[in-house]
Amino acid sequence: MSPSVPLQEMIRAIRSARTQCEERGVIQRECAAIRAQFRQTDNGGRSHNLAKLLYVHMLGYPAHFGQMECVRMIASPRYSEKRVGYLGAMMLLDEKQDASLLITNSIKNDLSHSNQYVQSLALCTLACMGSAEMCRDLAPEIDRLLQSANSYIKKKAALCAVHIVRKVQDLGELFIPAARSLLSEKNHGVLHGAVVLITELCERNPETLKRFRKTVPDLVQIMKGLIISGYSPEHDVSGISDPFLQVRILRLLRILGRNSESASDAMNDLLAQVATNTDSTKTVGNAVLYETVLTVLDIKSESGLRVLAVNILGRFLLNSDRNIRYIAMTSLQKIVGTDHNAVQRHRGTIVDCLKDQDASVKRRALELSLALVSASNIRSMIKELLLFLSSCPPELKAQATSGIFIAAERYAPSKRWHIDTILHVLTTAGGDVRDETVPNLIHLITNASELHCYTVHKLYRALVTDISQQSLVQVACWCIGEYGDLLLKGECQETEPVQVSEDDVLDALETVLQSHMSSSTTRGFALTATMKLSTRITDNVDRIRSIVSIYGSCIDVELQQRAVEYNALFKKYDHMRAAVLERMPLMERNSSGNTNGEATAETITETNSSKVTQEDRVPAPPPQQQPAKQTYDLLDLLGGSSEPLQQIPAAQTLPINTSGSAGGDLLDLLGGLEPSPATPAPSVTVYEKDGVTLTLSCEQQSDSSLAVTLTATNASESDISGFTLQAAVPKSVQLNMKAPSRDSLPARGAAQMTQLVMLNNPNKVNLKMRIRISYTRQGSAFQDMVQVDSLPGLS
């Protein structure tokens, strides 16, 4: 291929290459020819060669050797060469290249050129790749051009000034007078550039923002002129007069009206006029309306205007365009906390969006639906959410179940409705619920004494029907173990009576024990339930003893330990079995004072799902009724728990017979082990901001290991989602962060999140920890960091 081929011929040759290797060969030959011609002093085709090199650069091949040629062509007096030179500079140069400094003087000369198109080339290049040094040198020239009589130059200079302000914020003061005067221009291009420049100045300097609040009446007049102006072919887009300028003005008004009563009052009438007169049948009109809505919701607007903005978003929800529906729900999510009643009017439309085929729309509709749940609509909303749960995508099931649980716990109209709702969720999506669901439901059932018979019958039927949902099976086994006698009586007024025999119940528990779908934890629940039934039935005790003895040689160490201990109860301590396997008393949560409908989603502290959940926590009686040592021996008999004993009020303790040989046997179980008194780990508040509080407590495990517990709560009025903690420690310290208890924090402290961090410090260095806190509130992402220089409780 000849070095002098035109650009079109080179493009045709490159496109006709059959392989990448052939394409590289064509480009290499052409680049070699371009280099040779660049070295010639008298070269009349410089612009032609540089244009070809720019095409090569667009294809991703190296073209750095043309940088100096760009500098030379910019200095050329010929417009054709200057134009290609400036284009090459914008593509091949940036502020990191030393060659960019060489064109500063050429740009300065061209900014004073008599030809407006040469001035335009210099302005575009400076706005595209001007460095901070270039901006400082040329800012006075730009300010001079802002006062030019030529509208074409003024609009280019305004946008160039925006780049200068972004690069060097201190230069913003230089452009304030000129920017203010540009608002009196009639040319739409100049007005657009002026509004963009003022927006940039106001966002970067609060003092400048106060000064430009005086321009609100001028902006309102410009906006009204756009609305009432007749058809103008130069600016009309689908029947809307210059929508780009309208959107820019609305965005600037939003910045000026934020936290300002007077500025907001000055623009209220205009915003109402735009909201009512803009055509919403076209995408262009929807863009203007959406920007109007954002402005209304962000300033101190009137209540009626806010309702009008919410209604516009409600109309967006009916739009066939999924993108419009998505942004409408995103906006509603941000204001549902402040304008809850206005958003509630569109609840039906929002719920209908749960049926949308688009996954993103479904997710937004789910988040918004959960935020709309209240005490007045809890039944209807949960009904719709349960219907959605039965057919929702797998990636949304965990979020849906968690939201339903929190809403039911906060607004449940009755305990029976609460239990039925949770059981429905467990039946539908039991594999997607969080770990704390099982102990929470057990706590709820335990405290609803009037519903024990109803619950055990319902759970038994669910267990017989399906044993694949592990969470449901665990709760069912727990209830059968605790209230099996009520199940066998078959006298339940709340539900249809079912005649269940002892063999039927044991068959169901054996099915769980032998099923390959049952996890180790679920088998532990079933084995404990079987053992508890030995005190609640009369004819099949030998069968229970046989079932328990089989698992005394189980390969699962947990099940084996339970079975061995239960066998010991049958043989050596049979006289104690009835007292040990008593029903669990009423249980309390960590945070006191919660009632139904306001209960939190915290884990029940008395229930440990990885141990014998039904009888691990036998309450400690007051010291005057029972020695502490006997209680610890009893704990060790049933699970060998090494955790500190949780103190429970004396009114809820179990009566334990301490007279005769029973007390002596209890004392003799472990050879007189003397427990040390439990001391709570010291805690300290390390972070408190915007309603989010993070506390830290430490517990020394050994000389080199330490357990750190992070607890987060949300005292604000809006829910928090996506709450994550990240921790960093010195390099010589090994860090292992366990999974958090939850990733959402309901409003008003309704629940707390805990996360365990294990630290190994073999070199005994001074422990410090840096914690990053990330979460999403009302659709906005927040991130903060805190450093803990000393951990509490360490000597």
Features:
single chain, 795 residues, 3-stranded antiparallel β-sheet
Overview in brief:
It is built from 34 helices and 10 strands.
How would you sum up this structure, described in words?
This protein is an alpha+beta fold and 795 residues long. Among the domains are: 449-580, no CATH class; 683-788, Immunoglobulin-like, CATH 2.60.40.1230. 54% of the residues lie in helices and 9% in strands. The strands form three sheets. The protein has a five-stranded antiparallel beta sheet, with no helix packed on it. A three-stranded antiparallel beta sheet has the order 6-9-10, with no helix packed on it. The chain has a two-stranded antiparallel ribbon with strand order 1-2. Strand 9 and strand 10 form a beta hairpin. 39% of the residues are buried. Residues 591-678 have low confidence and may be disordered.
Helix-strand layout with pairing:
Layout: H1 7-15, H2 20-39, H3 46-58, H4 67-74, H5 79-92, H6 104-111, H7 116-129, H8 132-146, H9 151-167, H10 172-182, H11 188-204, H12 206-212, H13 216-228, E1 236-237, E2 240-241, H14 243-257, H15 261-277, H16 283-298, H17 303-317, H18 322-335, H19 340-344, H20 347-352, H21 359-372, H22 378-389, H23 394-411, H24 415-429, H25 437-447, H26 452-465, H27 470-489, H28 502-514, H29 520-532, H30 541-550, H31 557-571, H32 577-580, H33 628-638, H34 660-668, E3 683-689, E4 692-700, E5 705-714, E6 720-728, E7 734-737, E8 752-760, E9 769-777, E10 780-788
Antiparallel strand pairs: 1-2, 3-4, 4-5, 5-8, 6-9, 7-8, 9-10
